[in-house]
Write a structure and sequence with these properties.
Radius of gyration: 29 Å
CATH topology of the largest domain: Phage tail protein beta-alpha-beta fold
Order of helices and strands: HEEHEHEHEHEEH
Structural class: alpha+beta
Distance between the termini: 109 Å
Number of domains: 2
Oligomer: single chain
CATH class of the largest domain: Alpha Beta
Strand order of the largest sheet: 4-7-6
Shape: elongated
Number of strands: 7
Number of helices: 6
Helix content: 25-40%
Strand content: 15-25%
Largest sheet: 3 strands, mixed
Length: 156
């Protein structure tokens, strides 16, 4: 009986060691940035683009009927992004004008758009998105084309 057990054990050990060699060889072929999670499947070990550049995160904006201004929509789209608005006392006075504008119907439904694109779309071409990546602050300044224009329809 000992001979049978030792023979089975020796064959089992040889089979297991053969599998280990095959497994180690397959693992060595995997790139250092990949993690093998199955026999034929690997997963990349790197952050998504949205995790590296928070403003590239894809957002959807479907505001309720209580969101009526551009400022309210911008505040809504920034929720959970990690970015916040520059305080009103530090922002250009024109930002208050932007935030008070009525939200256009065309901007009530934004789908599969980056956060950066959503902010630029909501502010329109008259305003330039200003980003402080150190403090993760967002603000808007009057675009150069609008600032250089001397005449405003409401100024008279």
């Amino acid at each position: 009986m000992n001979r049978i057990n030792s023979k089975c054990t020796r064959e089992t050990l040889l089979a297991i060691s053969g599998l280990l060699v095959v497994s180690l060889t397959a693992t060595k072929n995997v790139d250092a940035s990949e993690l093998q999670v199955g026999r034929y499947q690997t997963v990349m070990m790197q952050p998504d683009e949205e995790q590296i550049d928070l403003l590239s995160a894809v957002v959807t904006l479907t505001p309720s009927e209580h969101i009526n201004t551009v400022g309210q929509a911008i505040t809504l789209v920034l929720e959970g992004s990690g970015y916040r608005l520059l305080s009103a006392d530090l922002a250009q006075p024109y930002r208050a004008l932007l935030f008070a504008l009525p939200l256009p119907e065309a901007h009530r439904q934004l789908e599969s758009i980056s956060l950066r694109q959503a902010l630029e779309l909501l502010s329109g071409p008259t305003f330039q998105l200003v980003i402080d990546p150190v403090y993760r602050l967002i603000s808007f300044e009057l675009a150069e084309t609008a600032a250089s224009s001397e005449s405003y329809a409401c100024s008279s």
